[in-house]
Design a protein that fits this description.
- The two termini are 23 Å apart.
- Helix content is 18%, strand content 46%.
- The longest helix has 17 residues, at 129-145.
- The protein has helices at 3-6, 38-50, 129-145, and strands spanning 15-17, 21-22, 24-34, 56-59, 63-65, 69-70, 82-93, 98-109, 115-125, 152-164, 170-179, 182-183, 186-189.
- With 192 residues, the chain is of the alpha+beta class.
- The protein has a single domain, classed as 3-Layer(bba) Sandwich (Pyruvoyl-Dependent Histidine Decarboxylase, Chain B).
- The strands form four sheets. A five-stranded mixed β-sheet has the order 4-7-11-3-6. A four-stranded antiparallel β-sheet has the order 5-9-8-10.
Length: 192
């Protein structure tokens, strides 16, 4: 017996919510190195350096809703909570130059100058800072030209990068947009 049946509630009772919309986010970067491994080693230490090691990290693709708003980095993250991110990560080995970066830009309607949303590109690899910037700029431009250029202007572009050359066996560098809250649209509210 489920909770609905035991409480004499029909499965159709309640509130129907739409997909949640990410609102506030902060930007953070980090690096780490370990002689043991990547996942529980250099990656975890990069999360610690970025100040998000106490969370379970989820990543998703690269668009921002118009209500997205950058805030100062959240100092307190509840241990074991879920932090959803758009993240660039590079893993490598000793003496490899690691680079991670995010480039974002905001789309505005050409006719009204109203903000439509944002595009975000992330990349991580063994490349120079200038190569990283070129890849991110090219990626953002490609996204813009393939679906948004006719109706929107791309403005307020921002580049966030982090580089690191580990001395230990494994190294990780990351750049992340971390979301802190969400708008939950109500599609339908059943009332008796």
């Amino acid at each position: 017996m489920n909770d609905f049946t035991s409480n004499n509630m029909a499965l159709s009772d309640g509130i129907l919510l739409g997909n949640r919309i990410p609102k506030d986010f902060f930007v953070t970067t980090g690096f780490g190195e370990s002689d043991i491994c990547v996942h529980a080693g250099s990656y975890h230490l990069a999360l610690k350096n970025a100040g998000i090691e106490k969370a379970n990290i989820l990543t998703y693709s690269s668009v921002l809703p118009s209500i997205a708003n950058e805030i100062e980095k959240k100092e307190i993250i509840h241990f074991g909570s879920v932090v959803e991110t758009i993240m660039a990560i590079a893993n490598g080995t000793s003496c490899q130059h690691l680079s991670a970066g995010i480039k974002l830009g905001w789309l505005y309607h050409r006719n009204s100058s109203k903000k439509y949303g944002g595009l975000v590109c992330e990349y991580g690899g063994q490349c120079s800072s200038s190569e990283l910037e070129n890849i991110l700029s090219s990626s953002l431009l490609e996204l813009y030209k393939n679906g948004f250029e006719e109706e929107y202007e791309l403005k307020e572009e921002r580049l966030i990068t982090k580089t690191f050359t580990p001395e230990k066996k494994h190294g990780t560098v990351l750049v992340s947009l971390c979301f802190t809250n969400y708008l939950h649209p109500i599609i339908d509210k059943n009332e008796e």
